[in-house]
Design a protein that fits this description.
This protein has 473 residues and is of the alpha+beta class. Helices cover 34% and strands 21% of the residues. Helix 1 (7-32) crosses helix 12, helix 3 packs across helix 12 and helix 10 packs antiparallel against helix 12 (432-451). Bound molecules: zinc ion. Residues 94, 127-128, 158, 185 line the site of zinc ion (ZN).
Length: 473
Amino acid sequence: MTTKLPADRRAALTRRVGELMPEVRRDLEALTRIPSVSLDSFDQTQVDRSADAVADLLRAEGLDVEVVREGGRPAVIGRLAAPDGAPTITLYAHHDVQPPGDGLGWESAPFEPTERDGRLYGRGAADDKAGVMAHVAALRAHDGRPPTGVNIFVEGEEEIGSDSLATILERHGHKLRADAIVLADSTNWDIGTPALTTTLRGMIRVVVTVSTLDHSVHSGMFGGPVPDALMALVRLLASLHDDDGGVAVQGLRGGEAAELDYSQERLRQESGLLDGVQTIGTGSLLSRQWTRPSITTIGIDAPSVDTASNTLVPSARAKVSMRIAPDEDPHTAYQALLNHLSRHTPWGAKIDVHLDDEGAGFQADAQGPMYDEVRAAFEDAWEGTKPVDIGVGGSIPFVAAFAEQFPQAAIFVTGVEDPDTRAHGANESLHLGEFERVCLAEALLLERLGRMKPRKVLHSQARSDTLRGPRDE
Ligand SMILES: [Zn+2]
């Protein structure tokens, strides 16, 4: 059961969002032209510029705005008080972007937004400046007077790991307290099918160094009885998977993904898997991507082929990235990986493991009156197509941070992306038709939550907390 939304009100919001799209798009293009790459080696005055531009957009909608910085990149906080008795919603997006890459492969300049075939191309045109503009569009659709309280939080360092987010939430979290939180930085299932992201995998990243000698020696004189570190490292890395390519580390959790139709063909096409190359692991494709662990070696330091000499390498290292199940405890997973690595290091080689990064996954309860409202808003915006619950195999540290800081709030992970968005890659783009639906869904969501009875809001708060603690009903 959801709140009643009169058909004429729904039609009015739909029309209003349609009228607003040209100006929303202009503002999105202006944001996209700012190369706000948060990575250290890029000009950080551009990240300041994009924070100021976002602050201006929010101020123009009548919000109380401040730009905050707690040792990292600038974040923007905007607030609009709730009408009497209405719930408050916090809306999240980020204004920083990934580097454009080496510039190769882009069909138009990364920071010059360009439309082709109904898609707007540009770095950040989707991830996540379209998320910022979806929030602004929802406010505009309500002419700056939404029926709920609204807090907007636009982060400036999501693409480099949200290092100061914990401090920001500690010092400013009281300004973001809400009954529901919309985190618009994920993806929809397909063009024409909206999605709520209800699980995310966590992550452990380690640097493994293997040593066998205290200096390099002639490979002809000593090769034979003396093992080199690179071979020891390669054997150690090979032990992380069984012959089918499944993860061989014992003691890790793994669950089943929701039943959605996802074919080998679609996976091959979306990932660019070469003809004849097999998929690895066992279980449904989606459980392998969303709810089971995976391990990837993402880098190796060893002598390069061009400069290699005939010597036994004394020491070599690799960076290993492990994705863990949404409900896995990162510390337990790290211990399991550590145990595996020390047990499988061959020939008594010395091993050093450095924990480079870790992050918890996320699993939403996703039930209760507030989730009913968000699903109804999506269904209306997509003209009758219900949203599907999806997982995402990647890790989004801020989702776990928000879930921990606001255990009482219902958390909706939404987004503007689709399978062709290529966030982080060359030719990142936004599907403009779907973007309008995202904006409308958010405007409808504010309308629906504003019509909820306070009693229902309170009830749904208790429901959204069931995963994290005992239910107190
Ligand atoms: Zn993003």
